[in-house]
Write a structure and sequence with these properties.
The chain is built from six helices and 14 strands. It is of the alpha+beta class. Strands 8, 9, 10, 11, 12, 13 and 14 form a seven-stranded mixed beta sheet that branches. It has a five-stranded mixed β-barrel with strand order 1-2-3-6-5.
């Protein structure tokens, strides 16, 4: 088995992006197959390489704790070894099938895929159910998000794996708490105090002062995805929501949302 994708194969996979996304709840088996094999290396809880392959495979739809990666990530995240061990245990002595989503590779050349074990086990779903990863979607890779969120919720409720560690706790929209989380991926839950549209950009304000309190914003160029999902952002005023993404410092803690799967209306 080889993980080298031919030009024809890459073009065919890229064409999937033009096809409407499957309905939520559809099994990954509905996606194009991208190869089969036995695992040779498990780099961390969301990245592997096949035994006779020469390309890393990134488990799309989830984010596991990272091990040291040079200057970009000099120290291991909490529970990174445990997450990698959990993934290795799921894959050992099994053949794995890759199921390719809407974008077959990331900017680093890694294959992006859902992993299905030879007995039908969906690896991403299981990693989430066991608490060794969090849901992590992108505008061009967000298939099966509701199923993944349901799996994550099971582990979070039971405080399994990552959810027993304070570093991965769902944050409150308190700027004093979020100040130390800048530049990191966080999940934040709270009531939307106000909404506004300014020059096409929509703001979800979680405090009384938008200049200092936590705010999530949606740029005009990505609004089409929210409209297609029938998510009325301005109507979220007064609603409790959970948002996830990378925090930045702009008029207090801020988060840019690029696709509707980053918002859970509670």
């Amino acid at each position: 088995m080889t993980l080298r994708l031919s030009r024809r194969r890459l073009l065919a996979c890229a064409a999937v992006a033009a096809v409407p996304m499957p309905a939520y709840g559809t099994a990954p088996d509905s996606l194009p197959e991208g190869g089969k094999g036995i695992i040779g290396a498990v780099h961390d809880g969301d990245t592997i390489r096949f035994k006779d392959g020469d390309t890393d495979v990134r488990l799309v739809g989830i984010q596991a704790p990272k091990l040291p990666q040079g200057r970009r990530n000099p120290t291991a995240w909490p529970l990174a070894d445990e997450s990698r061990g959990a993934l290795r245990a799921l894959l050992e002595n099994h053949s794995i099938t890759l199921r390719l989503g809407t974008t077959p590779r990331d900017r680093n050349g890694r294959i992006l895929a859902h992993l299905v074990r030879d007995d039908g086990l969906w690896i991403q779903q299981t990693m989430l159910q066991e608490g060794w990863a969090r849901v992590y979607t992108f505008p061009d890779n967000r298939l099966f998000a509701r199923d993944l969120y349901a799996a994550e919720r099971t582990a979070r409720t039971a405080r399994r794996g990552l959810w027993s560690h304070p570093d991965y706790a769902v944050r409150k929209p308190d700027p004093a708490i979020l100040k130390s989380d800048m530049g990191s991926f966080q999940i934040i839950e709270g009531a939307v105090k106000d909404t506004a549209r300014v020059r096409g950009r929509v703001y979800l304000n979680f405090g009384e002062d938008y200049r200092t309190d936590f705010t999530a914003s949606i740029a005009p160029e990505v609004m089409k995805a929210f409209t297609a999902d029938k998510l009325d952002l301005l109507a979220l005023k007064g609603r409790s929501v959970r948002v996830r993404g990378y925090l930045r410092d702009f008029n207090g803690p801020s988060m840019d949302l690029t696709h509707p799967e980053q918002i859970e209306v509670l």
